[in-house]
């Protein structure tokens, strides 16, 4: 076995950290953790659960990497509304693994503050209850804010935001003729799943796919996007720091 790469990684990590130390860094990073199943198959596993479980371990590691950076918010895409159409067996497995991820992050020494974002009504009640209890136990933590996007769809989020906004206006007695004028970019933003948080500065997608696939469609309108061919279970701290270095070298042009 060649141990040279393992010996060099800490040196390379230190170099990357020096390169971004005095450069602009993202405050909010959104991650599309993609490629778990492909990683498992290419690693020779017939049981794809190995990919999902290794990907789950990578999540905790990635949150710990933020300690050496200026990242304050992480939103990680774990289960889309489209994923719910997979086989009953795989969806059940994903529910178990995602619940375990939330439990692990809530009980570890990361000190992160967990939030669930998504159309939770699409998930089994017992799964939602377990995750909400775990997330609720972190409300007083002062570490990185971690949004777990589960049962999430970008279009559905916008639909939910507009519907909730209109319901509030109706309940407040707003005249029907005035409701349309009260639907603004600002009022919609205040009703998104991520309300109260800054939009992501950087979106990272693993596995070689180069599309947003409905992830944070509203919030990511002006985000920088970084793609990598690396599958999520194989994603390393050096990959994360490379993404931050690339971000630090870009000149952001909002709306252009």
UniProtKB/TrEMBL annotation:
NCBIfam families: PRK14828.1, uppS. Binds 2 magnesium ions per subunit. This is Isoprenyl transferase. It comes from Corynebacterium incognita. Mg(2+) binds at residues 34, 224. HAMAP family: ISPT (MF_01139). The keyword Metal-binding applies. Its EC number is 2.5.1.-. The active site is at 34, 83 (proton acceptor). Gene3D superfamilies: Decaprenyl diphosphate synthase-like. It is an enzyme of class 2 (transferase). Belongs to the UPP synthase family. Z-FPP synthase subfamily. GO terms for molecular function: ditrans,polycis-polyprenyl diphosphate synthase [(2E,6E)-farnesyl diphosphate specific] activity; magnesium ion binding; Z-farnesyl diphosphate synthase activity. GO terms for biological process: polyprenol biosynthetic process. Keywords: Magnesium, Metal-binding, Transferase.
């Amino acid at each position: 076995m060649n141990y040279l790469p393992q010996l060099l990684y800490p040196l390379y990590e230190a170099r990357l950290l020096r390169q971004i130390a005095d450069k602009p860094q993202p405050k909010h990073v959104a991650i599309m953790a993609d490629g778990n199943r492909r990683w498992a198959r290419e690693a020779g596993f017939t049981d794809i659960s190995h990919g999902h479980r290794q990907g789950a371990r990578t999540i905790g590691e990635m949150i710990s990497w933020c300690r050496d950076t200026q990242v304050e918010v992480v939103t990680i895409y774990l289960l889309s509304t489209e994923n719910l159409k997979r086989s009953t067996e795989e969806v059940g497995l994903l529910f178990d693994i995602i619940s375990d991820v939330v439990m692990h992050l809530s009980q570890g020494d990361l000190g992160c503050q967990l939030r669930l974002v998504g159309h939770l009504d699409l998930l089994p009640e017992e799964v939602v209850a377990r995750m909400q209890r775990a997330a609720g136990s972190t409300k007083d933590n002062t570490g990185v804010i971690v949004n777990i996007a589960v049962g999430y769809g970008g279009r559905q989020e916008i639909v939910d935001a507009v519907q909730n906004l209109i319901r509030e206006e109706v309940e407040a007695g707003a005249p029907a003729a005035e409701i349309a004028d009260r639907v603004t970019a600002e009022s919609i933003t205040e009703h998104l799943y991520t309300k109260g948080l800054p939009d992501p500065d950087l979106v990272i997608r693993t596995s070689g796919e180069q599309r947003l696939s409905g992830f944070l469609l509203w919030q990511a309108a002006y985000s920088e996007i970084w793609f990598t061919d690396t599958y999520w279970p194989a994603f390393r701290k050096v990959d994360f720091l490379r993404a931050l270095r690339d971000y630090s070298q870009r000149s952001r042009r909002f709306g252009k």
